[in-house]
Design goal:
Layout: E1 4-13, E2 16-26, E3 31-35, H1 42-49, E4 57-62, E5 65-67, H2 72-77, E6 80-83, H3 95-99, E7 106-109, E8 112-115, H4 117-130, H5 146-158, E9 164-168, H6 176-191, E10 195-199, H7 203-209, E11 212-217, E12 220-226, H8 232-240
Parallel strand pairs: 3-10, 3-11, 6-9, 9-10
Antiparallel strand pairs: 1-2, 1-4, 4-5, 7-8, 11-12
Helix pairs in contact: 5-6
Length: 247
């Protein structure tokens, strides 16, 4: 059974049609590369899946059950997590504090409830070990590389035991070594049965980790096929319109 299914999802903003009848599915432990030029509809589609927008038409199903999200919290409760391009990290805080930001663990101290730093640092260490990241819970984010920052953002998604992680341009503006580190982190999610939607403009990264590739052009789905059955040349043609529809 698909962990995520979109059926004829359409989104309009007044007279502007951002998405037209998008149908996609995603299996547990599958990595889907979502590609398209700026304005193709990628961000709109991700915002629908993550609860920021409601579709104008069409259905969204998780584990075969229709769902409707009014906000991102409801999407998170259904197992949908997002790693945004800006990562939304606080540079002045530690890795562990960023992992638990907004979801802090508490303990009783007499009549008071106080932050349980010990439990948060221990759990953060477990998450970084699962991801095989060199990031340490006490490290300050402002001193981290791009790859380590991604590890913090990905570890944060693991707190809720997600079914689906949406990743927006995770390898943009980082070094080659850090790109390899981030791609390994994505594989770790897949190995734990988590479905990943990777939004990226970087063709080598998509073909390195993705099982399937979906291409949007002007709000329409023009390709949804196994990565092994496509090529960077075909995807480039689909994005630019040189190729109308995938073979």
């Amino acid at each position: 059974m698909a962990v995520l299914e979109l059926r004829a999802v359409t989104k309009r903003f007044g007279a502007i049609q951002a998405l037209s009848g998008i149908s996609l599915h995603l299996a547990p432990g599958e990595i889907l590369g979502l590609m398209g030029d700026n304005g193709a509809g990628k961000s709109t589609l991700v915002k629908i899946i993550s609860g920021n927008f409601r579709p104008s038409a069409g259905d969204l199903l998780i584990d075969g059950r229709p769902v409707e999200f009014d906000n991102p919290r409801q999407a998170r409760e259904q197992g949908v997590e997002v790693v945004y391009q800006d990562l939304a990290l606080c540079d002045n805080l530690s890795a562990a504090a960023n992992v638990f930001l907004g979801r802090e663990l508490m303990r009783r101290l007499g009549p008071l409830r106080v932050l349980d730093y010990g439990a948060m640092y221990a759990r953060a260490a477990e998450l970084f070990a699962e991801l095989k990241s060199e990031t340490r819970p006490h490290d300050l984010v402002r001193r981290m590389s791009g790859g380590q920052r991604q590890a913090v953002a990905i570890a944060r998604t693991r707190l809720s035991d997600p079914k689906i992680v949406l990743m927006d341009e995770p390898t943009a503006a980082i070094s080659v070594r850090q790109v390899a580190e981030v791609l390994d982190l994505i594989r770790r999610l897949r190995d734990r049965g988590i479905a990943v939607v990777l939004i990226s403009h970087r063709m080598p990264d998509v073909f390195a980790v993705c099982d399937r590739i979906a291409v949007l052009r002007r709000g329409c789905l023009v390709a949804d096929k196994p990565a092994a059955a496509s090529s960077p040349e075909e995807v480039t043609g689909l994005i630019t319109g040189a190729i109308e529809q995938a073979a």
